[in-house]
Amino acid sequence: MPDPEPFEPVIIGFTCNWCSYRAADLAGTARVKYAPNVRLVRLMCSGRLDPTFVLKALASGADAVLITGCHPGECHYVEQNYKALRRFLLLRRTLAQMGIEPQRLRLVWASAAEGVRLAAAIDEMVEEVRALGPLHWPARPNGRVAQPEATPAEEVMA
Ligand code: FES
Fold it and tell me: What is the pTM of this model?
């Protein structure tokens, strides 16, 4: 019988348009290799990150979430990244109370010039989450991950 496939974590990475998204782009154009496990979602600023984005990502099958943004004092929207920092700390505490390991949520500041640094942080996170194993949250008796309920079109339009 063949060996089972090794676990490859799925990580959702929220990036800021002005810094960390460009850092990831720079890493790509500079051919800096990093783990392909992170699916990047571009926001205009880390302050746009609603905590429900993180919860929905985890509930939809992600094994971890990476939040990135401009360094403190360098946010293009004055101090929105401080809001991101407060949300990150609150989320980590809330998730810990639900039994979710703190390594599954990480915050990284990365300027547009820090492609190598961002790539290294991604590799490190992937290794940590790989060691933790799949999240399977919210846990179901059959081991399957719950899918978020679809929002009826009338509610979206309202
Ligand atoms: S513009 Fe990058 S974190 Fe605000």
Answer: 0.85
Return the structure tokens found at 129: 């989450």
Its domain, for residue 152, covers 11-157
* Ligand 1 center–CA 59 separation, angstroms: 26
CA distances from 86 to 48, 67, 83, 89, 131 (A): 13, 12, 5, 5, 27
Per-residue pLDDT tens digits for 12-31:
999 999 999 999 999 999 99
The answer, yes or no, to whether any atom of ligand 1 lies below 6 A from the CB of 69, is yes
Confidence of residue 5 (pLDDT cuts 50, 70, 90): confident
Give domain status of residue 152, yes or no: yes
Query: Is 3 contained in some domain?
Result: no
